[in-house]
């Protein structure tokens, strides 16, 4: 059961979706700064979005939130008190990650279709891409932000087409935040 907080563009924004969006935005924004405090915010937003996505039958997106919660623990421990020290991947590792994402999406999409998920290819990409992007964040690789950029474009499109306007707008904002994160982390790794 969801309680409507307000209606925007004929879309009823629930209290849960609103709080999840605000909390997630704070976590992602803090991530661009490389500050360790990003991780508790990321975990809190993920808990809220796990419930929301499950309620609207976006099962891969709901499962992704569990991965984010676990990753927040490792990110907190890995970054340490001083925060992230961005590095870069080798060209070979970039290629491996790209191939792994493509293969995993191809395997997961039919599974999602078989269980009656509201979206298949896009939700599979959001799940798999985010898994790899999250790992890159934990390991402080600036390429994470390029992957987040692509994920956020796909996510904003998916949620818009499914009619989840508020979350779609959040993903549009996340797209711009990913560009900021990419620039900040690129600058930090160059220093």
UniProtKB/TrEMBL annotation:
The record describes its membrane topology as: Multi-pass membrane protein
> InterPro entries from the entry?
NMN_transpt_PnuC
Where in or outside the cell?
Answer: Cell membrane
Keyword list (alphabetical) reads:
Cell membrane, Membrane, Transmembrane, Transmembrane helix, Transport
Q: Name one Pfam family in it.
A: NMN_transporter
Coiled coil, from the record? none
Note whether Cell membrane occurs among the keywords.
Answer: yes
Q: Which residues cross the membrane?
A: 12-32, 52-76, 96-115, 121-138, 168-185
Q: Name one GO molecular function term.
A: nicotinamide riboside transmembrane transporter activity
Tell me which PANTHER family the record gives. Answer: NICOTINAMIDE RIBOSIDE TRANSPORTER PNUC
What is this protein called in UniProt?
Unannotated protein
Organism of origin: freshwater metagenome
């Amino acid at each position: 059961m969801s309680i409507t907080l307000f209606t925007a563009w004929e879309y009823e924004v629930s209290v849960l979706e609103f709080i999840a969006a605000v909390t997630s935005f704070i976590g992602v924004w803090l991530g661009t700064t490389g500050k360790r405090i990003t991780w508790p915010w990321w975990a809190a937003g993920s808990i809220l979005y796990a419930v929301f996505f499950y309620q609207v039958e976006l099962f891969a997106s709901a499962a992704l939130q569990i991965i984010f919660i676990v990753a927040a623990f490792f990110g907190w421990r890995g970054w340490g008190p001083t925060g992230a020290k961005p590095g870069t991947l080798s060209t070979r590792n970039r290629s491996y990650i790209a191939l792994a994402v493509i293969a995993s999406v191809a395997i997961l999409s039919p599974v999602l279709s078989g269980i009656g998920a509201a979206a298949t290819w896009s939700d599979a990409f959001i799940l798999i891409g985010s898994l790899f992007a999250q790992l890159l964040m934990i390991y402080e690789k600036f390429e994470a932000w390029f992957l987040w950029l692509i994920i956020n474009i796909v996510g904003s499109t998916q949620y818009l087409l499914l009619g989840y306007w508020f979350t779609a707008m959040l993903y549009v904002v996340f797209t711009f935040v990913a560009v900021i994160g990419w620039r900040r982390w690129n600058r930090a790794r160059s220093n």
